[in-house]
Write a structure and sequence with these properties.
There is one protein chain. The two termini are 28 Å apart. 31% of the residues lie in helices and 38% in strands. Strands 1, 2, 3, 4, 5, 6, 7 and 8 form an eight-stranded mixed beta sheet that branches. The chain has one domain: Alpha-Beta Complex (Aldehyde Oxidoreductase, domain 3), CATH 3.90.1170. The chain is α+β, with helices and mostly antiparallel strands. The protein contains three helices and eight strands.
Length: 143
């Protein structure tokens, strides 16, 4: 089972290298990427400075494995990569990287939406919002 977790934010360099590795796979005709970024939301008059992500890693990796398998069954995908941050990620930094590839473009559009919605609904990953004044609260999952 694949470990989807990266400590801290997901860097642009990591994302770029992931894309570059697929240039030799010439059966691929389309890629789609979703990047989840921490927002500097205002909650009760306080601004979010970061989110501290935690998870029961074994359970989350198992849930993610099941989500991946269902996506491969549902869509004609060549490749799929999913990474989520653990630990502190500042506002403006990337916390979720979902990357799918397929011979056809319409497939990757449908697959990425399916995957992101399934991850948000079913992966046991938790975020604690850290405010600029260093107080914190558990994040509520919204769209």
């Amino acid at each position: 089972m694949k470990n989807i977790f990266k400590t801290g934010p997901i860097s642009a360099q990591f994302i770029g290298e992931s894309i570059a590795k697929h240039q030799s796979k010439t059966s691929i005709g389309a890629h789609n990427i979703f990047l989840g970024q921490v927002r500097a939301d205002e909650v009760d008059g306080k601004k979010v400075a970061a989110i501290d992500y935690s998870a029961h890693q074994e359970m989350a990796n198992e849930a993610m494995h099941n989500i991946r398998e269902s996506a491969f069954e549902k869509f004609d995908l060549t490749c799929m990569h999913i990474y989520h941050s653990l630990g502190k990620v500042a506002a403006g930094e990337i916390c979720l990287f979902v990357f799918v590839s397929s011979p056809r473009r319409k497939t990757v559009f449908k697959a990425i939406e399916f995957l992101v919605e399934e991850i948000k609904a079913n992966a046991p990953i938790f975020g604690k919002e850290i405010f600029e004044d260093e107080t914190h609260q558990w994040k509520e999952n919204k769209n």
